[in-house]
Amino acid sequence: MEEFLAFVTIDVWTLIFTWGNLIILFLLMKKFLFKPINNILEKRKNEIDEMYESAQNSKSDAEKLLEDYTEKLKNVNEEAEDILKTAKKRAEGKSEEIVSEAKKEAQVILSRAEREVALEKSRAQEELLKEVSGLATTMASKILEKDISEEDHKEMIDKFISEIGDGDDK
Questions:
Q1: Predicted local confidence at residue 54, as pLDDT
Q2: Domain count, the chain
Q3: Is residue 84 part of a domain?
């Protein structure tokens, strides 16, 4: 049993060497393994932070662009409405102008027609006067051919005047 106890005993020098080896191994690992790994992890963390910050900036830029485009779209809609209103006003103005010109043309045509009617009326009156003078001449020649009393003469003149008056009214 003693043989087995030799395996289980604690040797102080072995323990010191083991602890010394462990500390040296730890320091070596810390210098050559943990520092480079920590540096790599730190670089990776910085890269991820930069990526996250870049993503945040891109997101905020996208939100700004969305707001700008929304505002521009709103402005475009307002401009389109303004353009439509302006076009409608122009069309109404043009319509009124066309109606006004048509009324003026109608007035010109009416005044021209009235002048033509007045001209035709004066021509008709001239023709009537010519006919009347012809009739008067004919009547005068008939009167001269025939001896008419003063009463017959007045009666013929009254009849002639009433006929001319009837012709004028028509």
A1: 94
A2: 1
A3: yes
